[in-house]
Design goal:
With 430 residues, this protein is an alpha/beta fold. The chain folds into 2 domains: 2-75 and 341-417, no CATH class; 89-339, Spore Coat Polysaccharide Biosynthesis Protein SpsA, Chain A, CATH 3.90.550.10. 51% of the residues lie in helices and 15% in strands. The chain is built from 15 helices and 9 strands. The chain has helices at 2-28, 51-75, 102-110, 128-137, 155-164, 184-191, 209-223, 227-232, 247-253, 263-273, 294-317, 325-343, 345-356, 364-383, 400-417, and strands at residues 31-39, 44-50, 89-94, 117-124, 143-148, 170-173, 197-204, 243-246, 278-288. The strands form 2 sheets. It has a 7-stranded mixed beta sheet with strand order 5-4-3-6-8-7-9. Strand 3 (89-94), helix 3 and strand 4 (117-124) form a beta-alpha-beta unit. Residues 91-248 form the Glycosyltransferase 2-like domain. Keywords: Glycosyltransferase, Membrane, Transferase, Transmembrane, Transmembrane helix. The chain crosses the membrane at residues 7-26, 38-71, 330-356, 362-380, 392-413. One of its GO terms (molecular function) is glycosyltransferase activity.
Amino acid sequence: MKLIRRWLDRISFVGVTSGVFAWGFVQGNVALGGTIRFEFAFVVLAVVLLQAVISSLIFTGFIGVSGVTFLWSLLRDTDPEPVYAGDTVTAIVPVYRDATVLDRSVESLLASEYEDLEVLIVTEEDDERSRERARELATREGVAALVNTRYPGSKAGAVSYAVEETDSEYVAVFDADEVVDPQFLPEAVARLRDCDVVQGRTVPQPDGLVEELAYYESVLLSYVGRRLLYVFTEFRMAASRAVVMRRSSLSITGGYDTEMLTEDFDFAYTCYKKHLDVEEQLGHPSRIESAHSLRDWWGQRKRWMTGYVQVLHKLVANARPIRKLRNLTSAAICAGTVVGSFLLLTILSKFVVLFLVGMEAYFLPPLVAVIGVTAAVRFHDWRVGSVDRLGWAWLVVPVIVPLYSLTAIKAVIEYAYGWDGDWYSVEKGS
């Protein structure tokens, strides 16, 4: 049965990918509005506008406006006066098969400039190496270790167990490989005076080709791509790393759902539906490890996209009662994310249309927009010390778009045929 499903999955992936590409190609060939004529003294110029041209210009405009908006958010100085002491913050670090990098988060948290901080490492029963490393680190003052025996098998369960075992006013969650900036928590706690959840930025470290692509994917799809959504709606991401929140926020939402593959994506929509005020903190970002191989990059992204499809399924199923507007807008926003990722491949097919009709010049605006925006963000991150070098991979950033679309197509197909819910663990350094 598994063999049949595997082959159905592969055949469907090839078929759907070909169909999406072909649909974009056919759509891109459609002429819009017939022929437009420009008449001058002795010259008549006729121009046929193809749908591919309009798509190119719309994509350029979207990336340009979103990119400028994100850069403005990075550059403007709106940080509150930091708070260095007060209510206790419990920093929860769930770890699974990441013993070699666990010291990064723990050491950086111990170096935080917020004084009233306790670090709680949560390990899984079947991960002896991480349990051993957690016990070693728990000998440090302010660090404790906990084995997740109550809700084993997921990051959401590890966080939920830790929250039940503590009573601090504020709860923070960080990944094992996350190097937290010393100023992040003081400013996050200051922001919590006026909001319920503070979400920080994470910067994948671009120290190799695959790592460079992961960095630019984060810039382009996670931050630039959401700017206009943030401008026109009150939806904000509230993830399960680089996040600080009131304990009451977890009570209102019920915490992270242990049944969800991407518990953070689901949690963000729960916060939105419960009208919690989530505030973004772009300053003092955390440095995180990237996937180090294409196999890991693909597996990790496919896992995320499968989780997004699962969240969409949940939101559509729970859209009633429709009188609650955010039930409907949540489903619409999530559908836009999944369907938009699925259809990104059509941009490539429309480029093929432009090439075949001799309109290569229309390649330039979207390429310039994507490369220009990501290069500008990279320069900013280098200037403030979030990355160590400027690099050159911004020149190949456009390949991220069709690659990410392929992971979305694969994820939708696998979810449709049945999903086993397993974690995907990437290889991380020491």
